[in-house]
Design goal:
single chain, mainly alpha, 434 Repressor (Amino-terminal Domain), 2 domains, about 70% helix
């Protein structure tokens, strides 16, 4: 993977997770003790931040530093995992009876396609 491709990929992961958490760039910068402009540049792949900065941002976003080191062929799985995480978040917000209904429906669908 080329440097620019890596920086763009990491920036995209950061942006996606930040938006998932409904954080502005300014709020992420505040929480990570970084400048908002720097966060913007990192998200756009314009700067090669230090490992410490990436670790700080990862920790602030509830990610592992290793999440930034995914191989290109695993990116599709990453997108799937992010979508699944969003669905799981929605399910967790349901009342217990509706959670059980969704779980039973999912189990039935999985049994039907296995």
């Amino acid at each position: 993977m080329e440097t620019q491709e890596f920086l763009t990929t990491v920036g995209s992961i950061i942006r996606s997770r930040r938006k998932e958490l409904r954080l502005s760039q300014e709020r992420l910068a505040e929480l990570a003790n970084l400048h908002p402009t720097y966060i913007s540049e990192i998200e756009r792949g314009k700067v090669n931040a230090s490992i410490y900065c990436f670790q700080t941002i990862a920790h602030t976003l509830g990610l592992e530093f290793a999440d930034f080191l995914l191989l290109p062929e695993t990116r599709i799985d990453r997108v799937f995992d992010q979508e699944l995480s969003k669905v799981l978040s929605q399910i967790r917000q349901l009342k217990p009876a509706k959670k059980e209904l969704v779980m039973n429906a999912l189990k039935g669908m999985l049994m039907g396609i296995s």
